[in-house]
Amino acid sequence: MKLKDMQEQVFNYLSTKDSEVKELPFIKESKGIQRKTRLDSYKLSFKNRTVECVENDFSVTGIFLASDDFNQYIYNYLKQNPSKTHYINEISRGLPSYIKNNKPKAAAKFILDLAQLEWAMIESFYNFFNYKEQKKQDVAPGETKIVHNHSLVLMQNKWPLDKIWNDEKAYEEELSYLSIWTTEDRMVHIRSWTSLELTVLQLLKTHNSLEQCIEKIPDTYATEDLTQIFEKSLPRWIELGLLSLETS
Questions:
Q1: What's the pTM?
Q2: Tell me: the pLDDT tens digits for 175-219?
Q3: What is the 3-state secondary structure (H, E, C) of the chain?
Q4: What structural domains does the chain harbor?
């Protein structure tokens, strides 16, 4: 039996409710410990480890969930949403949806938004290190090519989620325009911008050249404000690692 097949059998056994031990024939009885005892130990370790992973992924959400037992809340989530993949980073994917449908009465009003933010941070991290380069349309000669940080996530929210996440305390409603991105040092960053800055960032993210981006900016914005964006904000975004520019 190949190692991959063996690992898959073990995963399938551990992630089901079936307590039968007739499976996994390669796990044998050994002197001093019964086969069933060993399998039960594996199952308990698997449960504890997956609960721990979700707790770590949503550490700030857990603070505001106001559940009497966050550990048990996660366990209930995992019982309803057993992992269907071998990848540990996928275990938490369904928690925001679970919170939406099973929100404790005392949970903060922004709890779903916060959970979605924390999942976006997880995705940003894995997107940065697992990204597969795709062939992109070349820019025209003389244009400035935008090199995107493929982990960049942009979101608008009615809560100041960056303050809530950083300070781990509640704030009143306040529109926020957020960017989430990952850098080579394995750090995930979250930062708020103005509405105009977010609009320009969204255009920069969806275009290949700086010239194309500028052409798409609505003419409703004041020239002075746009000048500030390209003279001050753009160099800052490059410094922070959201994107870079190359002259073709």
A1: 0.83
A2: 999 999 999 999 999 999 999 999 999 999 999 899 989 999 988
A3: CCHHHHHHHHHHHHCCCCCCCCCCCCCCCECCECHHHHHHHHHHHHHHHHHHHHHHHCHHHHHHHCCCCHHHHHHHHHHHCCCCCCCHHHCCCCHHHHHHHCCCCCCCCCHHHHHHHHHHHHHHHHHHHHCCCCCCCCCCCCCEEEEECCCCEEEEECCCHHHHHHHCCCCCCCCEEEEEEECCCCCEEEEEECHHHHHHHHHHHHCCEHHHHHHHCCCCCCHHHHHHHHHHHHHHHHHHCCEEEEEC
A4: 1-107 (no CATH), 131-248 (3.90.930.50)
